[in-house]
Amino acid sequence: MDPRPHKAQAQELWWLVFTIVLGSIVLGALVPIFLIAAGIGTIMIPVLAMRDRRTIRNAQRAIVEQHGQALRFDRQRDLLLGVIKAADIPMIATDTDGVVMISNPRANAVLGIRTSMIGHRFDELFTQKVLHELESLARAGEQGHARAAIPILGELRDFDISADPVPESAGAVLTFRDITELSRAMTLKADFAANASHELRTPIASIKGAAETLMGPAKDDPKMSARLLEMVTSNASRLELLARDLLDLSKLEAEDLPVNLEEIRLDELIESVFTDFAPSAQRREVRLVMNIDDEIGSVHTDPSLLKLMLRNLVSNAIKFAHEGTSVRVIATIGTVPIDRTAPPPDALNQHDTGLEIEVRDKGIGIPLEHQQRVFERFYQVDEARSGTAAKRGTGLGLAIVKHAARRLGGNVTLESVYQSGTSFTIGLPRCVKPQSGLHGNENDE
Fold first, then answer.
1. Which of the residues 74, 170, 351, 415 has the least number of beta carbons within 10 Å of its own beta carbon?
2. Average pLDDT per run of 10 along the chain, which is 445 residues long?
3. What are the Cα distances from residue 10, in Å, to 19, 23, 24?
4. CATH architecture of 259-445
5. What is the pTM of this model?
6. Which residues of 391-413 are buried (b: 16+ CB within 10 A; e: fewer)?
7. DSSP string spanning 81-135?
8. Run of H or E residues at 43
């Protein structure tokens, strides 16, 4: 409320009363009755003064209240904008014409839009028809929900989008939730179930067929019975390996799997793996060689996980190495980067040095087009899938190695030249206590 009109009116009344009183005093010298008017005017002066003070106080009180309301409105607006900007989910608000009025930084970051969206029409920023329909229906007062694939910096990502009307402004507010990883996980789960069913069906069908033949036509044929029993034994062993690998992988993917860290001697652990696979290496005339960096002292890790990784890698190397060559396990100190999505266990913070263990063979190698997929569950390169029963694995070994490495905050990488050899390297961060003078075992080719 502006007090200036009230002050002008008060000034006009004051001048009117003052003129009447002054005129009455002057005329009262000639006509005594005017003295009565002067007295009345004199009485009115304090009355008018009190009324004017009351009017000004009311006007000032109204100004203070309006100023307080304006401050509260500003604070509420700033709080609302702050909440929108701090929200971890992308949010975009449009007005009645579909022009973007509010967008938070998360929207720019997640949707890959590098310039400000404010002031642009929503249908100019996005080309997907489903988004245009959601936004226009929300402006018309209808809530909406949909899923859409949006290209973000060259990568197609899946989003769950909600659109809600804003009745006060006839606008709309849209929120975007990135569900790409969830969609991929659901796809992987479906693929895993299908692949597991397929891998189980094959040996079960073979065992069933062999058993039926043994009970029927081959019942009195010793040579056929022996072949069928060998088939049953081979497929039963395959089922056992598959069940073991499925159980290992399931444990590694469980979030509550404990990691049991111990100080171990790396040479002793590798030697135990070599002992387990010595018979199969001898059958294929493959030598097992160990090289450990002199600076490696004790290793702080989970021995069961490390042995699980080495068993799978050494087993694969022996299977696919050329006969008469060697499989080498080479351990060196290295700088292993930390993956913040799968950090190492807290107990490993006492060490600063990482460990790299390379398992190298001179074998058939892996074609380049397959190298990006060999760590997928049940994925097998053609030579492995169409090879003999001795060479064909479950297709889970490298997936187990990848998940076991991530449990320890590490990673596994691959280098391979087709028909020349393959090298898998396990990187484990913060697990080595360097110690000079400790020499590892080395068996030259």
1. 74
2. 51 59 59 60 66 78 80 72 76 90 86 87 89 91 89 86 86 90 76 72 85 82 86 84 79 78 93 94 94 88 94 93 95 87 80 90 90 82 48 77 92 92 94 60 42
3. 14, 20, 21
4. 2-Layer Sandwich (3.30)
5. 0.58
6. eebbbbbbbbbbbbbbbbbbbbe
7. HHHHHH-SS-EEEE-TTSBEEEE-HHHHHHHT--S--TTSBHHHH---HHHHHHH
8. helix 33-86
Considering the domain 88-178, what is its CATH architecture? 2-Layer Sandwich (3.30)
* DSSP tag of 2: -
CA distance 408 to 67: 60
* Burial zone of 179 (CB within 10 Å; 0-12 exposed, 13-18 middle, 19+ buried): middle
What does the alpha-carbon distance between residue 383 and residue 418 come to, in Å, rounded to a whole number?
Answer: 11
Q: Given 1.10.287.130, 3.30.465.10, 3.30.70.1400, 1.10.260.40, which CATH number is that of 181-257?
A: 1.10.287.130
- Using DSSP's 3-state secondary structure scheme, residue 423 falls into strand
Q: Quickly list H helices, 127-179.
A: 129-139
For the chain, domain boundaries:
4-84, 88-178, 181-257, 259-445
Q: How far is CA 234 from CA 228, 238, 392, in A?
A: 10, 6, 12
